[in-house]
Amino acid sequence: MNEPAANPHVPRPLLEARGISKSFPGVRALDDVQITVHPGRLNALLGENGAGKSTLMNILAGVFPPDAGEILLAGQPVRFKNPRAAQQAGIAIIFQELNLVPGLTIAENIFLGREPRTASGLLDAARMNREAAALLAEVELDADPRTPVGQLRVGAQQVVEIARALSLQARVIIMDEPTSAITRHEVAVLFRLIRQLKARGAGVIYITHKLDELKEIADDLTVFRDGRFIAARTFAGTSREEMVRLMVGRDLTDLFPKTSTPGTAERLRVQRLSLRHPGRPGDFLVRDVSFSVHAGEVLGLFGLMGAGRTELLQAIFGLHPRHATGEVWLDGRAVSPGSPRAAIAAGLALAPEDRQREGLVLSHSVAENATLACLAKICRYGLLQPAREQELVGGYVERLRIRTPTLRQAVRNLSGGNQQKVVLAKWLATEPRVLLLDEPTRGIDINAKKEIYTLVDELARAGLSVVMVSSELPEILAMSDRILVMATGGLTAEFGRGAATEEAIMQAALPAGKN
Amino acid sequence: MNRQSLTVQLRRFQSLLALVLMVAALSAASPNFLTVDNTLNVLRQISINLCLSLGMTLVILSGGIDLSVGSVLALAGAVAAGLLKNGLALPSLNLLIQVTVPGAIVVGLGVGMVLGWANGVAVTRFKLPPFVATLGMLSIARGLTMLWTGGFPVTGLGDDFGWLGTGHWLGIPVPVWISVALVGACLLLTRRTPFGRHLYAVGGNERAATLSGLAVNRIKIMVYLLGGALAAVAGLLVTARLDSATPNAGLGYELDSIAAVVIGGTSLAGGRGSILGTVLGCLIIGVLNNGLFLLNVSPFWQQVVKGAVILVAVAADKAGSRRDH
């Protein structure tokens, strides 16, 4: 502890939420959960993706109301009609996706909705910029308050959000994975700011996946799993293993059913693939990558954010025909697709990282999404045959255990795991020979994860080649026959099954010469 | 568990219910409303807007908009009328080509398709926002109409051509037959063909459609081309009905057709909506105009009422979709 320890006999909590429940069509996101925040302390809210952390945060921020339960702010029950009401009550929130208006300046963003005015009612820009400059000095952001926010790096934008929270005199500050997109230096600044906030008596709820960073800032911890409250402890009295056990609720080894072994025939070969940066001449997103995948092999591809993993898959799939160079061979034939259309025809399939934006038409039904890439199969005389569609999609719904009331349900109303299964159904329906998976288990609950691992294993056993990009080390280690590691666009290491350790992979994934 | 599809059904019934209520009220208010003659009259009147609105529905479903349909209607009608009346003179070759009725119709449709194709190319190859691309075409096609006609109506097109607009078959006006046939074709297209699925997918999520291997640009160009062709059909019907192609034909019609699509519950954001909804939207607008006319309401008030109906219809639709989520 580098701060004076908070008083262990904590006074009345700043914020207390009890018995909170919330359902969305198709999912029970929160079931009777609770959290308590004390003044001057940071409560780390832990849980896997899909545990309900973000839902609770949205409720506390007034984005939507809970179905049941009560929220006490300094002992008084409150009910927020909208985010503005929560803000006025002293709850500030820093979302994972930043909520700034890119075209407005730093100062305008900080004072958005409560701009200082002159006596005549006009904007007092001078005062606004002055006050913003003072706030920026406080958070040590070296920038002119008149800079448009869109010109700042993500990390700097995060700091602007914090300055905004400061200017609101917020008593409770909620942060949703604030370190997921910022540099180490910015993390250090952030942690210093958090300590300052605590010293002033503010309470912080801090959502994260990174257990290692907590020891610098956390006082308490709260664990959710599958929308339920699991435990509340003091941070100092809980070991890392204990935290993981609380979050996962079972041994990790149960999760991974790997039984397949790769064949010997080469299925996919990528040769000297490079992808120029579309905006920065001379810079590369992927540089000179060559590898091959055998039939029935699961190839894990690990890398940190910005390492070029997603871009590599996209380039193989023909999404960047103008900027990519190199060759793609499938079963000994050069294909080098110039479009996703050509890639699919050649036998490739790509389940993208952002399934809502890239994988699915959310307002359309399970059946319409599942058959989108293979409509010719359900046609006769050029007309769609509903009976064939039902049969085809029904088969995949059963095989992938997609939980949906009917095939006509809009995929928007399915849980993340079931949405991902619909994406997989769409690709399996094209009968691909190589399946490219980009973060296939991101944001889905643990049971769906297990089902997807089982499916990948089954597919590999049936001879499908799988390239799986993931930033979750346990998943990569357990599922892959071979692991490739990328950093700053290039391959940095290759490990056989069993030869890799978390440390070795991480070492290879860190960009050389930085940090 | 079928709550969602139930609300979808209810929402579809919303506009149907509105239409039924309007028909009931007008029948009570005016003895001339619910007669065979007047019904056929209403159907014939809406057939023009229906043709335009079918094309507009396809374009809007694919995530676009087509502001040029009124001008395309005018140019297609004027070109067909001009060729029919005067033939095509090629002074340099000292040649005059006479054009038959089917020939004029084919050329008129061709004009619509070429202009629609140009819209599609502007939207895809040159990446113009559909609003801007078709706004440009609105002006270009209107200007070309003026140039072609010299600003004067082309009249006296003959009975054969006139039959398209004024004739009857089995007691039902020809434009009604044509629009009903087109409704059937569009229903089949949107519900039973891969192309129909594709255009919904492109409108619902263009990125996902691209990644699913759809030829997005080709689909969009095709959609605008169909929109242009349907506008040309409307242009031929108007011209035949009036026995005259006027340079100001179809002025502002794009707004009526967008109104019909929107009243029919199709989302301006694309990806959600239906042909049947648009048919209902056209019927509602047509019945409203006709009813208010029969009740001797000033045409000025008709516009106010039509505007109010659009607002109420879309507000009800929004409320419905909020219930869904």
Q: How would you characterize this protein structure?
A:
The complex is a heterodimer of chains A (515) and B (325). With 515 residues, chain A is an alpha/beta fold. Chain A contains 16 helices and 22 strands. Chain A has helices at 53-60, 83-88, 106-110, 125-138, 154-167, 184-199, 240-248, 309-316, 340-346, 355-359, 366-370, 386-399, 416-428, 446-461, 473-479, 502-509; strands at 15-24, 27-37, 42-46, 68-73, 76-78, 91-94, 172-176, 203-207, 220-225, 228-234, 266-276, 284-294, 298-303, 324-330, 333-334, 348-351, 379-380, 383-384, 434-438, 465-469, 482-487, 490-496. In chain A, strands 6-7-8-3-9-10 form a six-stranded mixed beta sheet, sandwiched between helices. In chain A, strands 16-19-20-13-21-22 form a six-stranded mixed beta sheet, sandwiched between helices. In chain A, strands 2-1-4-5 form a four-stranded antiparallel beta sheet, covered by helices on one side. In chain A, strand 19 (434-438), helix 14 and strand 20 form a beta-alpha-beta unit. By secondary structure, chain B is mainly alpha-helical. Chain B has a domain at 40-250. Chain B has 13 helices and six strands. In chain B, the strands form three sheets. A two-stranded antiparallel ribbon of chain B has the order 1-2. The longest helix of chain B has 27 residues, at 3-29. At the A-B interface, helix 9, helix 10 and strand 18 of A face helix 7, helix 8 and helix 9 of B.
